[in-house]
Every structure is written in C-alpha cells, then in structure tokens.
Task: inverse folding
C-alpha cells in the first residue's frame, strides 16, 4: 500500500499567512493548512535552489522561448 504525505515548506506557510493576513483571512488559511494535515518541512539551501529552479521552469508568468 502506498502512503502519501502532504508536504509544504515552512517558507510557503509563512508566505500564505502573511498574504492572508493582509486580506483578513489569516485564521481561515491557518485552519485550512492545519485541517489538511500538511507536514511542514524546513527550507534548506538545497530545497530553496530546487524551488527556484522549478519556478524558473514552470512558474507563474514565465514563458521559455525556444
């Protein structure tokens, strides 16, 4: 049987809480994150580089010209 883990970086949680706080829905977002059972993982230099690479390749508004 395959066991799936829901992972979210601590940096993403912080960003989500900051943005949601500005929109007055911080508590709702915090409850959503907690309720979905995410495992919050630390951001390491290596994971930050992987995230930046993924954003560069697939991120919002980025179109790679060929």
Result:
């Amino acid at each position: 049987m395959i066991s799936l883990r829901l992972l979210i970086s601590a940096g993403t949680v912080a960003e989500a809480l900051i943005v949601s706080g500005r929109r007055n829905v911080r508590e709702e977002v915090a409850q959503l994150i907690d309720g979905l059972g995410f495992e919050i993982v630390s951001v390491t230099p290596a994971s930050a580089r992987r995230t930046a690479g993924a954003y560069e390749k697939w991120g919002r508004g980025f179109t790679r010209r060929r």
Remarks:
- The longest strand covers residues 7-9.
- The chain has a mean pLDDT of 87.
- Residues 7-58 form one domain.
- Helices lie at 10-22, 26-35, 45-58.
